[in-house]
Amino acid sequence: MTAAKRPLKINSRGMLLGPVTAAAVAVTASIAGSTAFAADPDNPYWPCIQRKVPHISAGMMWGGPLVDESDRSWRKDAEMANLVETLSSRRLPIEEAEQRIDNYAEGLTEDRQTKLTLLFTGLLSRTNSERSEIMAGIEKFARRQIALSEKIKKAAASSNELQSKTGATQADLNRAEELDQQLLWDTRVFDEREQSLTYVCEVPVLLEQRLFALARQLATHLE
Amino acid sequence: MRKTIKFLTAAAFAGSFGVVTAAPAYTVYVSNEKDNTVSIIDSTSLEVTDTIDVGQRPRGILLTKDGKHLLICASDDDTVQVFDVKTKQLVKELPSGPDPELFVLHPSGNPLYIANEDDNLVTVVDIAADKVLAEIPVGVEPEGMGISPDGKVLVNTSETTNMAHFIDTETNEIFDNILVDSRPRYAEFNDAGDKLWVTSEIGGTVAVIDAKTRKIITKISFDIPGVQPEAIQPVGLRVTKDGKRAFVALGPSNRVAVINGESHEVEKYLLVGQRVWQLAFTPDEKLLFTSNGVSNDISVIDVGKLRVVKSIGVGRFPWGIAISNE
């Protein structure tokens, strides 16, 4: 599209706007409302509405015997280590996972309390480790969004400048056109990432839900 | 045959958890914030018997004094919906002001006092005439609502201002403010009317206030082994009629604290569901129901034994609970 064909809009101050400027206004509004910008000053790169809870502690999930979270001995018991992996996998429906816990608990002939507590310790450790990786990924994602938003704002400012320049040359308008296209692409990428963020932010909560359900099932075999 | 088995199972269940089979069957209503529904539970079988569609983002929920109507804060619809409990149909909508979250009825049954979080107002609504009687400006982000048993004093807590505002219900004007800990969420008077309990979510405390002098008697804090302090966030609270015990929902710590109503000491922590939010007793106070927003269930506590006896799956993000009188 040449500069002459561009549709013009008029803003609230009565200024003429080309599509570049209009896009810039829309982009700025979109970024301002973005979830990439954290509300919690203690966690500036945490973009989720859900409060950042870096670590799930045993007491939040477990009413049974005291748990030593640093105890890694569950890894030395091959059956238990396998069970921790299986139960932690979200591919396994929770009903099946609960059934596997029942089978395991019913097969225990001695040290039931100790073994079930150790199994919980393994599940807690496994879940915390997976959550940490996911939360680090979410923060990395947020940093990239912030960087992209900076790029968009700079491009919008440049295009604005070119458009409002007195005696703009054809080269200026061509450059503005390029910025316009880049802005549209970057905005689209930004918006799509924002939409996926809603789902990504749910993942730590889903892991907590699963661990809690597993812990609750384990607890039914303690009494 | 099937019915017999079902009955026997229910009887065996009730027996095993010490729930008396002859206990009155109350109806428990739970608002599911994310599903836009209300789950209906039978207090004897402890099963969900029905789920009804309601307005968007239902949170605060209560029954009228005559038990005939269920009132629901449909927060995203900016209205309070009124349902007939027999037909389970929407009867009318009350003017509520924007974003109603929590409300309380005058002990006489009318009017209704609604906290409007977005407008920093408490709206007073005549539920018979369907009209707004007054709008009371309060602190920023009003939330908790408590009313004295004689109906003369309304207390509203404001999340951002960190205050409990004391309002004269005759003049509808604030006559005192008490500073409490960060983000006060819930306020409740005991039945004797001499104490006011206020929970503070971020502060992690419960303030017990002398209702006459309006001075803080004590602040209760919580310490749960194995739980980081920031996860202990007091929200919903209920006091027994005799004032001897208070139960406090501690949010993402997934625990309910049991507090001695006289010494104000914590007696016990009960592990319930995830992000425990609001609480409600059956009228005989034998059972306490808790809404658990993340595990999407209701925990049932045997109040006499101080034990969790059942978890009941409901909709997504269960928020408020109301229980019928009969």
Largest sheet of chain A: 2 strands, antiparallel
Cα(first) to Cα(last) distance of chain A is: 75 Å
Q: What ranges of chain A have pLDDT less than 50 throughout 5 or more consecutive residues?
A: 1-20
Strand content of chain A: under 5%
Total number of helical segments of chain A? 5
| Oligomer state of the chains in this structure | heterodimer
Give the class of chain B from helix and strand content and strand pairing: mainly beta
Strand count of chain A: 2
Structural category of chain A:
mainly alpha
Spell out the helices and strands of chain B N to C.
HEEEEEEEEEEEEEEEEEEEEEEEEEEEE
CATH topology-level name of the domain at 54-179 in chain B: Methylamine Dehydrogenase, Chain H
Task: Report mean pLDDT of chain A, rounded to a whole number.
Answer: 83
Biggest sheet record of chain B: 4 strands, antiparallel
- Taking all Cα atoms into account, the compactness measure Rg of chain B is 19 Å
The fraction of residues assigned to DSSP E strands of chain B is: over 45%
Tell me about this structure:
With 223 residues, chain A is an all-alpha fold. Chain A has one domain. Chain A is 63% helix and 2% strand. Chain A is built from 5 helices and 2 strands, in the order E-E-H-H-H-H-H. Chain A has helices at 19-32, 78-88, 94-106, 112-164, 170-219; strands at residues 9-10, 16-17. Chain A has a two-stranded antiparallel sheet with strand order 1-2. In chain A, strand 1 and strand 2 form a beta hairpin. In chain A, helix 1 packs antiparallel against helix 4, helix 1 packs parallel to helix 5 (170-219) and helix 4 (112-164) runs antiparallel to helix 5 (170-219). Residues 1-20 of chain A have low confidence and may be disordered. Chain B is mainly beta and 326 residues long. Chain B has a domain at 54-179: 7 Propeller (Methylamine Dehydrogenase, Chain H), CATH 2.130.10. Chain B is 5% helix and 51% strand. Chain B has one helix spanning 2-16, and strands spanning 27-32, 37-42, 47-53, 58-63, 69-74, 79-84, 90-95, 100-105, 112-116, 121-126, 131-137, 142-147, 153-158, 163-168, 173-179, 184-189, 195-200, 205-210, 216-221, 237-239, 245-249, 255-260, 266-271, 276-281, 287-292, 297-302, 307-313, 318-323. In chain B, a hairpin with a 5-residue loop joins strand 6 and strand 7 (90-95). Residues 1-21 of chain B have low confidence and may be disordered. Chains A and B meet through helix 5 of A and loops of B.
